[in-house]
Specification:
The chain has helices spanning about 20-30, 45-55, 70-85, 110-135, 150, 155-175, 195-200, 200-210, 220-230, and strands spanning about 10-15, 35-40, 60-65, 90-95, 140-145, 180-185, 240-245. With about 250 residues, it is an alpha/beta fold. It has one domain (about 10-245): 3-Layer(aba) Sandwich (Rossmann fold).
């Protein structure tokens, strides 16, 4: 696995890489030859299973615990990753959370935690990883946003604001570090069949999916394909963009 593939020789850090989309992306990148850093915040067992899966197929991976919203924790994670693998070529800002609530009923703490995890987490991970990419004059940042960041979602004002902020960050940073050989893009999936999807009430998720032109829920593989495109030379002239594997829910 590690000796060949479109990402052979690359080091990829995937935040929230122990489950769902993060796990799919980590394993997909490993299958293309990348060395993988699996970030997790709580479930060491799940992160360890991703590492074991990668290694069982001939790849190289390690798991690092870090709260992406905590600056010292993130700085330590980046230092550990670079110490182990020499650099970071690809950063996937995937860590996130999901809940819904009317704004007039939303505790301030719920708003703050959503912004902290998505926006502050993306900022901190990128802030500490980007100097290594600038130094080597190459790198790739992929920010996992969502369709609510484009269209908005009722009872998801906090998530919509966070995800829209991630898209704005993606565009600004792409302009800033493009001359350094670094590309920055985002992926905005619709509902994808993950643990979070499985915890949604059936009537809620079915009603949402029924509005998609393709009339089906997205699969993890649908998003992994987009991530691989952005991480490889296939997208060498693509930066500042937001790809939407969303079944037609959002059209840009």
């Amino acid at each position: 696995m590690s000796g060949s593939g479109r990402l052979a020789g690359k080091v990829a850090l995937v935040t929230g890489g122990s489950r769902g989309l993060g796990r799919g992306i980590a394993e997909g990148f490993a299958a293309e030859g990348a060395k993988i850093v699996v970030n997790y915040v709580k479930d060491a067992g799940a992160a360890g299973s991703v590492v074991e899966r990668v290694k069982s197929e001939g790849g190289n991976a390690l798991a690092i615990q870090a709260d992406v919203g905590d600056a010292q924790s993130v700085e330590n994670m980046i230092r550990h990753a670079v110490g182990a693998f020499g650099t970071i070529d690809i950063l996937v800002n995937n860590a996130g959370l999901l809940n819904s609530m009317r704004l007039d009923q939303m505790p301030i703490e719920v708003w703050d935690e959503m912004i902290r995890t998505h926006l502050r987490g993306m900022f901190l991970c990128t802030r500490f990883a980007i100097p290594h990419m600038v130094a080597q004059k190459s790198g790739n940042v992929i920010n996992m946003t969502g369709t609510f960041g484009v269209s908005g979602g009722a009872e998801f004002a906090h998530l919509s604001a966070a995800k829209a902020g991630m898209i704005g960050f993606t565009k600004a940073l792409a302009r800033e570090v493009g001359p350094d050989g670094i590309r920055v893009n985002a992926i905005a999936p619709a509902i994808i069949r993950t643990d979070l999807y499985n915890h949604m009430p059936d009537e809620v998720r079915d009603a949402i999916v029924a509005t998609y032109p393709l009339r089906r829920v997205g699969e993890v593989e649908d998003v992994v394909g987009c991530a691989l495109f952005l991480a490889t030379k296939d997208s060498a002239f693509v930066t500042g963009q937001t790809l939407c594997p969303a079944g037609g829910d959002v059209m840009i």
